[in-house]
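Hi R.,

Here's the chain you asked about this morning:
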Amino acid sequence: MRLQPIPSGPGNRPATDLPALVQQCLKSEQDRNLSENSLRELRRYLNEFAAYCSPPVINSPEEITPAFLKTYVDQRCAGKGPTLKKAVVWSLRKLGNYLCLLQIVMKNPAKDLRHPVFHPRSELPEYLCEADLKKLLEHAGRTDYQDFAVISLMAGTGLR
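And the predicted structure, written out as tokens:
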């Protein structure tokens, strides 16, 4: 399916104001069957961005630069978790790709924005020390042999 810009005026030229382009981008993503939850989040973040860029900050989409987007993401996500930053970067990349598709910009200005790095290993629980494991096994052995077997299996194989 080839995406066509929505006409915005008497000359049937594509819209050049950012709020109209955001709405076109959202319509395009809806037509591509983006899930309802993803579409809701995309709408939220792109509408926030369009409000942030209202004139005189940005007068045309061509003025959106990678440095401007990085500053916006840093300000928008200051003091928030990495999940928010990932969602904001994802939405800006979608908008940048759409602007490239319409040939409003030649290169996606959000292409070089980086997602935050998650460190899942830092959130894993620590292992029991040898003395604590011995106490746990002694207690399980006194109450029920099935509990002892399960705890021994978990401790011996590294199950969590």
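The CA atoms of residues 16 and 139 lie 72 Å apart.

Let me know if you need anything else.
M.
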